[in-house]
Structure prediction request, 152 residues.
Amino acid sequence: MSGRFETTVEIDRPVQAVFDYLADGRNDPQFSPRVLRIERVPDAPTAVGTVFRSTVKDAGMKTAREFRITDLEAPVRIRWAEVSKNSVTAREGGYDLEPLDGGRTRVRLHNVLEGHGLGKLLVGLALAAARKDAPGFGARIKAAAEAAIVRP
Prediction:
């Protein structure tokens, strides 16, 4: 079983700056409290093929995660796929960015969660939790990006 969740948020910063911020997955701990540690491999600007390795805490358990960037089109699209082997993974996900008037950016985050093995029983719970938190997650992205990106 798999399923999708998404959220959309408007960030009061220019699209290129928001793209640069989100493309550097090392910023994820600023808006995702589940991410305990993250690194970019190779330690170079994010490109197709870049892997972000992280340690996350879900439901009280720490797991190792690896996400590979599968598509990158500045400043409008970032795509990834989880390559780690966990019971519930993000088969695909991404950000779609749209420039708005006044130097603002609309960001749509989406993920498709998939269960493997025992995770086939758990993916429904993970999806329900992700969907419930989606508006809050969007608000955390907005707050973190606006705090981190200096207004031009």
